[in-house]
Amino acid sequence: MQGKWSLSLMAVTVMASFVAAEADACTSLIVGKQASADGSLMIARNEDYYINNWNKRQVIHPRREAAKDEQLAFKNGLKVPAPKTLYRYTGLMDWNGDTLSGDGLYEERGVNEFNVAISATNSAQVNPKAAAADPLVESGVIEAAIPSLILPQARTAREGVELLGRYVTQYGAGEGNGVLIADTGEAWYFEIGSGHHWLAYRVPQDGYLVVANGLRLHGIDLHDKDNVIASPGLADFVRKHQLLPKADERSFNFAKAFGVTGDRYNVDREWLAQHRLTPSKQQALRQDQYPLLLKPDRKIAVADVAGVLRANFDGTPLARKADADRPIGVDRTIESHIFQLRADMPKPFAVLTWQSFGSPAGAVFVPMYENALKDIAQPLRSGSAQAEGYSAYWAFRGNATLAQTNPGKYGPALRAWQSRTEGQLQAGQPHVDAMLKGLYAANADAAQAFANQWSNGVMLWAVQSARDVNQSLLTDMTKSSEKKYSPEELEKIKNL
Fold first, then answer.
1. C-beta of residue 433 within 8 angstroms of C-beta of residue 349
2. Burial class of residue 20, CB neighbours in 10 A (0-12, 13-18, 19+)
3. Across residues 115-119, what is the average pLDDT?
4. How confident is the model at residue 494 (pLDDT cuts 50, 70, 90)?
5. Pick from 62, 295, 24, 249: which is nearest to 144 by CA?
6. Parallel, antiparallel, or unpaired for β 187-192 and 79-81?
7. Which residue, 165, 163, 162, 121, is CA-closest to 143?
8. Residues 240, 241, 247, 249: is their CA dihedral positive or negative?
9. Is 109 helix (H, G, I), strand (E, B) or coil?
10. pLDDT tens for residues 226-272?
11. Residue 360 contacts residue 336 (beta carbons within 8 Å)
12. pLDDT score for 110
C-alpha cells in the first residue's frame, strides 16, 4: 500500500426531491490572476449528475481540415457548417457519448491548441415569463455540444464567447446554461437565459466568481464593451416583455430577468463558497442574490479551489438548518476539474489541468499538461457505468463507496491519503514546471515528449495508489467481519 489515505469522503447529502430539470446540477468557480496565489488564472467546476455511477473518458481530437460541406452535427439536431480547419482539442466525454445509446458527447471540459479552455455547463433554470417570451429551441445549442462546438474554432476566449453568442442567436438555445471560457489572458462567464438571449461578462483579475445552478449575472453595465458582450436587443427585449420592473442598462440584472433567484438549492452554495474564500465578509444566509464578484481574504491556491469543490456545511450556520441539503460536495459528482492558465509558461504547458475522476470527496486532483498529450493512459480512456478494474473513475469511485460502509472509521483514512497524495503533487508541481520550461528552451520536442509521459505517468501512479487503498479497505473490512471468539474458543480452533 502506498503511503496513507485521504479524502473528504463524506460527500454529504443528495438532493432527492429537486426538480428533474436541474438534476445535472454543478458548481463553478473562476479566479482572476491577481486573486490567485501563483498568478495563474483558474476556472473550475464539479460535473454533478443525477446518479452516482457515470464514467467519463478522456479524448484527443487532432487538428484536421474539414471535408467539403461538412457540418458539425449533434444528437439533438443542431447542425452548423464546419470551419475550414478544426483545431486540436481535448475533451472529457461521457463513457457512451459517441455511441447510439448515449444522449450526446457531453465532453464537458477541454482545452485547445491555442490554450482556450472551456467548462460547460452550469445548468440554470429559466423563469416561466422569459421562457414564454422567448422559448427554448429543442435543436439549439445545449450542454452536450458546447465544448465540441467551440473548442475546434476559437483562438481566444473572447472569440469563443462571440462565436457561442452568434450560435445561440442564430440557432437558438435548448437550455439555460452558464459557461466558463478562458485563455491565458482572461476569463469570461457566459449565461444563456432563453431561446435566443445571452450575456457574457469578463471576470476582473482581482476577484473570483462562484456559480451554482441559478443565473448569476447582475449589476452589469451593458455599455462596457471591453468587458461585456450581449445578445442583440437584450435590454429592449426585457423592456418589451416586462421581465424587469426597470431594465437599467448601467446595472443590468440578467439573472432576475431570465432566471430564478433566491432558491436555497443555489444560494446556499454561493454563500458557502464566498464564506470559505472571504470569511471576513459577513453575509446573511439565503439572500435573494449574493455579490457577483468578491476579493478573497488571501490569495487562492489550487488546494483552496479543491476545498471549495469538496465543501459541505460542517462548521457553518447552515449545518443547523434541517433543509440545507445541497452543499457543493456531493456523492453524485462524476468528475471535477481545475484549469490553471499560465501566461508565463511555454505554449504546450500553459494550461495545467487538475483532474478528479468521480466525486472529489473520494478522489484526488491529478495534474496533467493536456496540450502536450500525444496519447492517453488506459485508465483515462476506458470503463462504463459498470464497475470494473481498469478505469480511473472506478478506482476512485470504489473507495468512496467502500468508505461509506463505515464513514467514522474509513472517512479519516481516505482523507489522510488524499491530503498526503495531493500535498505531494501540489508541492512538486512548480519544480516540474521549472524543469519543463528549461528543457523547452533547449529542446522543445524533448520537453513535450517528457510532459506527455509525465502526465500519463502521474495519473497511472495516482490510480495505482487508489487501488492500494482499495485493497487495504477490503482487507480491513474482511477482518472486521470475523467472528469474535473467546480466548479458549480461539485456542481450540487453532489446535483443530
1. yes
2. exposed
3. 98
4. confident
5. 24
6. unpaired
7. 121
8. negative
9. strand
10. 999 999 999 999 999 999 999 999 999 999 999 999 999 999 999 99
11. yes
12. 98
Beta-strand pair 89-94/56-61: antiparallel
pLDDT exceeds 50 at position 121: yes
In terms of Cβ atoms closer than 10 Å to its own Cβ (0-12, 13-18, 19+), residue 14 is middle
DSSP state of 112: B
Q: Distances from the Cα of 189 to the Cαs of 111, 204, 322, 425, 452, in angstroms? A: 16, 11, 32, 29, 30
Q: Please compute Rg for the chain using Cα positions.
A: 23
Q: Is the Cβ–Cβ distance between 265 and 212 less than 8 Å?
A: yes
Site of grid cell 444522449: 103
Convert the pLDDT of each residue in 413-468 to its tens digit: 999 999 999 999 999 999 999 999 999 999 999 999 999 999 999 999 999 999 99
> In this structure, are residues 201 and 32 in contact, taking their beta carbons and an 8 Å threshold?
no
Any residues with CB less than 8 A from the CB of 271 and at least 6 apart, and which? 283, 285, 286, 287, 290, 318
What average pLDDT does range 363-369 have in this prediction? 98
What is the pLDDT confidence band of residue 492, given thresholds at 50, 70 and 90?
Answer: confident
At residue 111's C-alpha, the angle toward residues 66 and 100, to 5°, is 60
What is the model's pTM? 0.93
- 275-290 pLDDT per residue, tens: 999 999 999 999 999 9
Per-residue HEC secondary structure of 198-255 comes to EEEEECCCCCEEEECCCCCCCCECCCCCCCEEECCCHHHHHHHCCCCCCCCCCCECHH
Distance CA 21, CA 468 (A): 39
Q: Which residues, other chains included, contact 240 with Cβ-Cβ below 8 Å and sequence gap of 6+?
A: none
Of 10, 11, 12, 26, which residue is the catalytic one? Answer: 26
| Three-state helix/strand/coil letters over 468-492 | HHHHHHHHHHHHHCCCCCCHHHHHH
**Looking at this protein, which amino acid is placed at residue 332?**
R
Dig out the grid coordinates for 254 from the structure.
440578467
Q: Which amino acid is at 271?
A: W
- Residue 496, H or E segment: none
* CA 142 vs CA 147, 240, 312, 372, 468: distances in Å: 10, 26, 29, 29, 39
What DSSP designation does 35 have? G
Q: Is 26 a catalytic residue?
A: yes
What is the average pLDDT score of the chain?
93
Q: What angle do CA 18, 104, 14 make, to 5 degrees?
A: 25
Phi, psi dihedrals of residue 236, rounded to the nearest 5°:
-65, -40
Give the other-Cβ count within 10 Å of 321's Cβ.
Answer: 14
What is the biggest distance separating any 2 CA atoms in the chain, rounded to whole angstroms? 90
